[in-house]
Amino acid sequence: MDIKYTPISTVGEFGLVEKFASLAARYQNPNVISSIGDDAAVLRPTPGKLTVVTTDVMVQNVHYDASYTSMKHLGQKAAAVNLSDIAAMSALPTAAFVSLGIHSNISLEMIEEFYDALTAEFGKHGCSVAGGDTSASPVGFFASVTVSGEVEPERLAVRSGAKVGDVVCVSGDLGRAHAGLKILQREKSRYVEAGQPADFAPDFEGFDTALQKHLIPDVRITLSREISEKIRLHSLIDVSDGLISDMMHICVSSGVAAELSEEFIPLDPITRRVAEEFKEDPLSYALFGGEDYELLFTIAEEDFPKLYSLQGNVRAIGRIMEGEARVKIKRVNGENEEYSGYPSYQHFAKRNSL
Q: Is residue 156 predicted with pLDDT exceeding 60?
């Protein structure tokens, strides 16, 4: 199959922006009055609502590996990670602003694939791509995305409201995104060790849900809105850095401690299977892996029964305790593990690159 490869220089910067405007025009939020084509976007604020804004960046060889991340998957994920931050405030997205750094080895078709997937992901949640910027990049490809959204003051959820006695809850399952990453890295190693043959066939059979969780995570905007409609959220965060680090963010912001039970932390069977293959503790995938983009929140104990009516597979995994900021894990073998820092991936720490 022939793959088209059109240099971006054939359309130039302004031609590329015109293509972006055409793709973005498919999904329009009514509160976006003016978007791509003007010097700045114009948004109409909804009376009585608060504005929330978040920014995330995707840098090649830091946030993603181009050897196993397609431009389509990258576009979807660049949207999803920002939408997840909006969900973590129990807000709804309004407008997105996308700035791209594009290396000369990136074709027009690749950029269109990225932007088509990105705008479609935002469009699913009623969010317009309302502007941004483009630049040549001397190394690789990067995307910086900013999203604005709105939330009713009484439904706004932040990290700093956890109270002693709260029930700690989480949606979905944890660690599956890290399991997917492990499989992708395994197959990349096999490909390199085999001499990078053109007919190499990666072995992904049976790992589809783990790969999907890593490459194109679901966004919990609908669920966060359903929860905040029925229950007063004391604190809320999305699980992007691993359960321990994100629980620590709540503890530090709220001035409390947390005690979580291993037996209640949700692990998918595929996560356990991958961990077994690599002779690793499956719980460590949930505690430190990150990029699951599930909801981690605390509520009053009397509100917990209200969660049973939700469809997001929400469960209680622990409780907020009095004391200095720390997270204790009660293992099923009777041992306790305690953390007072952030053991997940952190930028600027010394490590090997991808």
A: yes
What is this structure's pTM? 0.93
Sheet holding 315-321, edge to edge: 235-238, 295-299, 167-170, 315-321, 257-261, 327-330, 336-339
Q: Is the sign of the CA dihedral 250, 254, 258, 260 positive or negative?
A: negative
Instruction: Find the angle CA(89)-CA(94)-CA(99) to the nearest 5 degrees.
Output: 100
Tokens encoding 298:
């605390």
Distance CA(281)–CA(278), nearest Å, equals 9
Please answer whether residues 156 and 89 qualify as being in contact, where contact means their C-beta atoms are separated by less than 8 angstroms. yes
CB-count exposure of residue 337 (10 Å: 0-12, 13-18, 19+): middle
Is the fold of 8-155 the same as that of 159-199+207-339?
no
Average confidence score pLDDT of the chain: 92
**Rounded-to-5 percentages of helix, strand, coil across the chain:** 35, 25, 40
The β-bridge relationship of strands 257-261 and 327-330 is parallel
Q: Residue 150 to residues 112, 120, 132, 161: CA-CA distances in angstroms?
A: 29, 20, 20, 20
Nearest to residue 217, comparing CAs of 185, 249, 263, 171? 171
User: Which one of 3.20.20.70, 1.10.8.60, 3.40.47.10, 3.30.1330.10 gives the CATH number of domain 8-155?
Assistant: 3.30.1330.10
Q: Give the domain ranges of the chain.
A: 8-155, 159-199+207-339
The HSE-up count of residue 229 (CA atoms within 13 Å, CB side) is 9
pLDDT band at 61 (very low <50, low <70, confident <90, very high): confident
| Distance in angstroms (rounded) separating the CA atoms of residues 194 and 197 | 7
Q: Name residue 316's beta-bridge partners.
A: 169
Superfamily of domain covering 159-199+207-339: PurM-like C-terminal domain (3.90.650.10)
Tokens found for residue 319:
């409780």
